[in-house]
Specification:
Number of helices: 8
Helix content: 25-40%
Order of helices and strands: HEHHHEHEEEEHEHEEH
CATH topology of the largest domain: Rossmann fold
CATH superfamily of the largest domain: TPP-binding domain
Shape: elongated
Largest sheet: 6 strands, parallel
Bound molecules: 2'-O-acetyl adenosine-5-diphosphoribose
Number of domains: 2
CATH class of the largest domain: Alpha Beta
Radius of gyration: 19 Å
Oligomer: single chain
Number of strands: 9
Strand content: 15-25%
Strand order of the largest sheet: 3-2-1-7-8-9
Length: 252
């Protein structure tokens, strides 16, 4: 770790120690060390694929079987992964009053690490819903089946196709997630971890937090669309940097 990074770790620890309201926004990078591929960048899930061919209602309507094949494979892959040190540190911090975690991740690893009350901005890959929104079924429910014996899996209520419980491009973020995430921008420290900050409205939350007076910081090995606008940038992998920050907090 460079001296500059050590200084930034100490600076963030100081801010966190003094804060009564902390909000963390996470993206795919937080799960990279667990073996869950990110969406963009080398080895990313969208590399060589158009997200619009997989992650949109239009793609599903045109070919539900092949969209499901992609999600079924992702679910099997994620089921084999375990939370890493970054998830663990955030789970520990989540026990502090005034802590809120907003995630764009659909993998459920924050919850598996023990974080409660996660604000899921893009839904969950472990949820499903009836594509036809039949009257007998709830909007979403959890189904851990891996792999599904039939693709698309049938709705147990009406026999029509089920859909993955994630938010696709062109769909609206669930109202309660938006409300809770916007409320969470009123905080003392807003920390962005492992997101390229290219997808809105999630990327705008940090800007909103800064506008409300929060100290803003980012943990990411690469510069992002947000880096220049934030108060502090900690360049490095989340599993290492958050571990350092956690230890700096414990040493205080
Ligand atoms: P991206 O794949 O766009 O960005 C991942 C970020 O993680 C990049 O900025 C990497 O530099 C960073 N990264 C990689 N390894 C890391 C590590 N070990 N520690 C910290 N950071 C690391 O993923 P998201 O920003 O989450 O939405 O993508 C946002 C949304 O776009 C996703 O929720 C998904 C996608 O389309 C939907 O599917 C609706």
């Amino acid at each position: 770790m460079t001296d500059a990074l050590e200084e930034s770790v100490a600076a963030l620890a100081e801010r966190l120690a003094a804060a009564s309201r902390i909000t963390v926004l996470t993206g795919a990078g937080v799960s990279a060390a667990s073996g869950v591929p990110t969406y963009r960048g080398s080895g990313g899930l969208w590399r060589g694929r158009r997200a619009e061919d997989i992650a949109t209602p239009e793609a599903f309507a045109a070919d539900p079987g092949s969209v499901w094949a992609w999600y079924d494979e992702r679910r099997a892959e994620i089921a084999r992964c375990v939370p890493n040190r970054a998830h663990e540190v955030l789970a520990t911090w989540s026990r502090r009053p005034g802590f809120r975690l907003v995630t764009q991740n659909v993998d459920g690893l924050h919850e598996r690490a023990g974080t409660e009350g996660v604000i899921r901005f893009h839904g969950s890959i472990w949820d499903v819903g009836c594509w036809d929104r039949c009257a007998a079924s709830p909007r979403r429910w959890r189904d851990d089946t891996v792999p599904f014996p039939e693709l698309p899996p049938p709705c147990p209520h009406c026999g029509g196709p089920l859909r993955p419980g994630v938010v696709w491009f062109g769909e609206v973020i669930p109202g309660d997630a938006i409300e809770r995430a916007v409320a969470a921008t009123a905080c003392d420290v807003f920390l962005v971890v492992g997101t390229s900050a290219q997808v809105h409205p999630a990327a705008g939350l940090a800007v909103e937090a800064a506008r409300s007076g929060a100290f803003t910081a980012e943990v990411n090995p690469d510069a992002t669309a947000l880096s220049a606008a934030l108060d502090l940038v900690l360049p490095g992998p989340a599993e290492e940097v958050l571990d350092r920050v956690d230890r700096a907090l414990a040493d205080r």
